[in-house]
Amino acid sequence: MRNKDQYFNAFKESNGRCNEIELGEKLGLNENTTRQILTQLLSEYKIEYVENGLCEYSVMKTVKGKIR
Questions:
Q1: Could you give the C-alpha distances from 42 to 2, 46, 47, 57, 66, in angstroms and in order?
Q2: pLDDT by residue (tens digit) across 39-67?
């Protein structure tokens, strides 16, 4: 859990300027662990898959207001 929080904070700070796997390696995580964290963050709707630039993921924007 600590790795996931640490990764997510670093991911937000990188703002898409770093490949998601390389970011995990900078934090001392192997590729499999990084992919597991990405899967968890996707399932929690904290990130979304987007095809652009170096990073294939983006932080989800929060929706304000009521959901109908």
A1: 17, 6, 5, 9, 22
A2: 999 999 999 998 766 788 888 876 555 55
